[in-house]
Amino acid sequence: MDSEDDMHDANDLDSLDDDFYSGETEDAPMDYYTDYDDDADDYFDDGDDSDPADSRRPEQNFTILKESDIRQRQEDDISRVAAVLSIPRVAASILLRHYNWSVSKVNDAWFADEEQVRKTVGLLEKKVYENPDANELTCGICFEVYPPSKIQTASCGHPYCFSCWGGYIGTSINDGPGCLMLRCPDPSCGAAVDQDMINLLVSAEDKEKYDRYLLRSYIEDNKKTKWCPAPGCEHAVNFDAGSGSYDVSCLCSYSFCWNCTEEAHRPVDCGTVSKWILKNSAESENMNWILANSKPCPKCKRPIEKNQGCMHMTCTPPCKFEFCWLCLGAWTDHGERTGGFYACNRYEAAKQEGVYDETEKRREMAKNSLERYTHYYERWASNQSSRQKALADLHQMQTINIEKLSDTQCQPESQLKFITEAWLQIVECRRVLKWTYAYGFYLAEHEQGKKQFFEYLQGEAESGLERLHQCAEKELQVFLNGDGPSKDFNDFRTKLAGLTSVTRNYFENLVRALENGLCDVDSNGAASSKATGSKNAAGSSKGRGGRGKGTIRASMSSRITDDNHWSCEQCTYANVRSATACQMCNQPRR
Amino acid sequence: MTSSSTSSRKNLSKIACNRLQKELTEWQASPPAGFNYKVSDNLQRWVIEVVGAPGTLYANETYRLQVDFPEHYPMEAPQVIFMNPAPMHPHIYSNGHICLDILYDSWSPAMTVSSVCISILSMLSSSTVKQRPEDNDRYVKNCRNGRSPKETRWWFHDDKV
Ligand SMILES: [Zn+2]
Ligand SMILES: [Zn+2]
Ligand SMILES: [Zn+2]
Ligand SMILES: [Zn+2]
Ligand SMILES: [Zn+2]
Ligand SMILES: [Zn+2]
Ligand SMILES: [Zn+2]
Fold first, then answer.
1. Is the pLDDT of residue A366 over 70?
2. What residues make up the domain containing B78?
3. pTM of the prediction?
4. DSSP code for B43
5. The RanBP2-type domain covers which part of the protein (chain A) (predicted)?
6. Which of A166, A201, A220 marks a domain boundary?
7. Contacting A residues, span 109-168, partner chain B, CB-CB under 8 Å
8. Average pLDDT estimate for A162-179
9. Is the N or C terminus of chain B more exposed, i.e. has fewer CB atoms within 10 Å?
10. Higher pLDDT, A312 or A219
11. How far is C-alpha B72 from the chain's CA centre?
């Protein structure tokens, strides 16, 4: 394994970067990434020192409802109203429908003015129409004369024959959900047509449709419930407003924002999401080329197809050039064990530093604004497609690979849960990362300090996720392809599980920091006092001012990531407690 | 003039025929005041003369309504329009389309030709000004392909007039 120093010489970094990348001081930037359980909290200012597991999983403020749950709740509400108001269930159903399924509103209105409520919803207490001749009744629609046995009436008494009722109700049901508010056909009469009458008078098919509308109404007209927007999903969500985020995740595994029903988009807010979506549709023509899945290899110029989830690309032999899909830069410049700073997330309009006359400046700005958008959009879209790919991979893992692995490595499937967990984490991280690009796009240009801090955090997130993604995607492959149990498998487990937990922590902190608007950083990039005052002040003082990210350099010392592991300060590998040097890079434990 | 004949029409159902026969008999026995229908052999399209009520802006003016019945009348509303020239009225477009809720969303099968006529005459009688709807030109232009008023998503003008 190359030592850090060798890498530095090879890369001939300038002094600033040298300082930054320096591996032998307490300044290694990876450390920040590693320290989640400890220093990261300081920087991210989550305001309490409680067990991170608590703050990570706030009390769930939503419930997923299957169809049977929905029906049960609806039945219960109807029964409750029927009991309290002493009215038939069908009447209670009409009332609830009218008051958007709010039991308390029904009760309030009813007990405030029962007569008025009855009038409004059409629950008459006595007939308003008496037939002049009780033996012969004229249907008010077909005008034919019938004996009473062939005539039906709603609570009002207006007579219509079975067939006319059937046509009337059937037409209304086929017109849409308005049938739930159906009234007597007489234009001057508001008597409600209840579900008992409907069940008596219409075809099985129409009954079924009515029933569907009633179920849908319970979800759609109720302020506390919504359907899961995932295509084909029939679950609904009941949401209790109050504290906590709007993110909701359905049993179908789709996560969405309760407030705007777009895909879950923490850490950006709903307004930013809709602005961003609007922007994307306005620019969609310009952006089409970006979505193309092929780019020329930066070295040999042959087209390279991106078919894997992570951004680390390797050109086909004989070129074998390793590069970053996003910036097309050499991968060796990117991090991993070079200790490098992952910088391809940054958008730097270097030209703006030059001096321009006014027109040139304006032309430049117009060009830049599209370039700038392109930069963010491409990264947003890449993470989106990486996420799709990761979802497919996750599925592949769950359906095929875990079983296969269980065979080749002689491991019970229960012991392979760490792989599924890693992939779930990748999917979630890709989602967060995707939205950080919308966040970055709207981050005010003038807040340089914040911007730099943000880009640093985002870069670290990007590189940490790459590490996880690469491990779960490529390193796993070796074991999948193996003929029999590998002695390295346990090390792989430790590494992947460690990376998963480390990445989860980092992203959770990142989301919180961004949601707080990076309030720890003032716009000049000066550190907030909090970081300076951290218990590791010695380390943090050294690199201050580098790129406005001095504060996030933490002190170095090996951290115990959990009771059984310590995390390598150099490569972040989670080593077993007994190891005195990193099993990955031989860095001695400090 | 505007014609609804372009809208493809199916023959009246048996129920519709029976019902219209009854309406016709009733109409002949006691037609609504101000209306005159000369019976033709076409049960599916009635052309009805209406005379403006005395003491209103339309007193002594005569207009003609064209009433077309759909296959599933009365479950579906009839199409009712004024023939050319249509009266000048804030809810009547120059192509004869009438903005009146009972002809569309608020139709009920318990209504009849006669009750519709009475509503239209009352709408005329309550008018205080002879003018076209504000959006007349735009609306009429959009209807040029012989679109039926029943295909319009009506946003009803205030229902006082
Ligand atoms: Zn009947
Ligand atoms: Zn009635
Ligand atoms: Zn779902
Ligand atoms: Zn939202
Ligand atoms: Zn190449
Ligand atoms: Zn890059
Ligand atoms: Zn190491």
1. no
2. 3-147
3. 0.65
4. T
5. 562-590
6. A220
7. 140-144, 158, 160, 163-164, 167-168
8. 94
9. N
10. A219
11. 17
